[in-house]
Amino acid sequence: MLGFLKNPVVVTAEINMNLLALTVMGLISRLRGLSYPRAVVFDEVYYGQFVSLYMKRIFFVDDSGPPFGHMLLALGGYLGGFDGNFLWNRIGAEYSMNVPVWSLRLLPALAGALCVPLAYQILVEMHFSHCAALGAALLILLENSLITQSRFMLLESILIFFILLAVLSYLKFYNSQSYSSFSGSWWFWLLLTGVACSCAFGVKYMGLFTYMLLLVIAGLHFWHMIGDQNLSNVSLMCHFLARGLALIIIPVTMYLSFFYVHLALLYRSGPHDQIMTSAFQASLEGGLARITQGQPLEVAYGSQITLRNVLGKPMQCWLHSHRNTYPIRYENGRGSSHQQQVTCYPFKDVNNWWIVKDPGMQQLVVSNPPRPVRHGQIVQLVHGITTRYLNTHDVAAPLSPHSQEVSCYIDYNISMPAQNLWRVEIVNRESDTDVWKTILSEVRFVHVNTSAVLKVSGFIGASLPEWGYRQLEVVGEKLSKGYHQSMVWNVEEHRYGKSQEQKEREVELHSPTQMDISKNLSFMAKFAELQWKILTLKNEDTEHKYSSSALDWITMDTNIAYWLHPTSGAQIHLIGNVLTWASANVATLVYMCLSLWYLVRRRRRIYDIPEDAWQLWVSAGGICVGGWAVNYLPFFLMEKTLFLYHYLPALTFQILLIPIVLQHLSNHLCRSLLPKSMFSALIVAWFSSVYLVYCTFSPVTYGEPSLSVAELKDLRWKDSWNILIRKR
Question: Where does the MIR domain lie (predicted)?
Answer without folding.
Answer: 296-359, 370-427
